[in-house]
């Protein structure tokens, strides 16, 4: 097993995820929202970049998760906000599915600042 593989940890079982319903988990001390939508599983940091609000309590639509407090949506693939008031991306993490388990590497953010 390579070092990279060792950093993936089990978030939950794939069967525990309901389509378009975020599931909050804590992985190595990091709150993560795991989302099954449009046939893919995504992992995004669970705290909004605008204020300390849990994104997993928001709604999922068009591969975006919406912050329930002020309505910014974040792209589950890139973490980028699509509208104000949030201006900074939220970290998104690599996901692997193995044997019915959802594995996430919270040490490798896929987000790109821009
Ligand atoms: S706290 Fe999320 S948009 Fe304001």
UniProtKB/TrEMBL annotation:
Enzyme class name: oxidoreductase
GO MF, one annotated term: 3-phenylpropionate dioxygenase activity
Keywords for this protein: 2Fe-2S, Dioxygenase, Iron, Iron-sulfur, Metal-binding, Oxidoreductase
Lineage: superkingdom: Bacteria
Domain called Rieske: residue spans: 9-104
InterPro entries: Rieske_2Fe-2S (IPR017941), Rieske_2Fe-2S_sf (IPR036922)
UniProt cross-references to Gene3D superfamilies, sorted A to Z: Rieske [2Fe-2S] iron-sulphur domain
Coiled-coil residue windows: none
Pfam annotation, one family: Rieske
EC number: 1.14.12.19
PANTHER family assigned: 3-PHENYLPROPIONATE_CINNAMIC ACID DIOXYGENASE FERREDOXIN SUBUNIT, FERREDOXIN-RELATED
NCBIfam families: PRK09965.1 (NF007422)
Name assigned to this protein: Bifunctional 3-phenylpropionate/cinnamic acid dioxygenase ferredoxin subunit
Lineage, broadest ranks: Bacteria, Bacillati, Actinomycetota, Actinomycetes, Kitasatosporales
């Amino acid at each position: 097993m390579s070092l990279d593989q060792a950093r993936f940890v089990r978030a939950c079982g794939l069967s525990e995820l309901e389509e378009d319903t975020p599931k909050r988990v804590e992985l190595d001390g990091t709150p993560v929202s795991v989302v099954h939508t449009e046939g893919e599983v995504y992992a995004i940091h669970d705290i909004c970049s605008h204020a300390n609000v849990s994104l997993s309590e928001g709604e999922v639509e068009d591969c975006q998760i919406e912050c329930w407090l002020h309505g910014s949506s974040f792209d589950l693939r890139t973490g980028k906000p699509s509208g104000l008031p949030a201006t900074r991306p939220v970290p998104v993490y690599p996901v692997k599915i193995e044997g019915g388990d959802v594995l996430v590497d919270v040490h490798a953010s896929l987000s790109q600042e821009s």
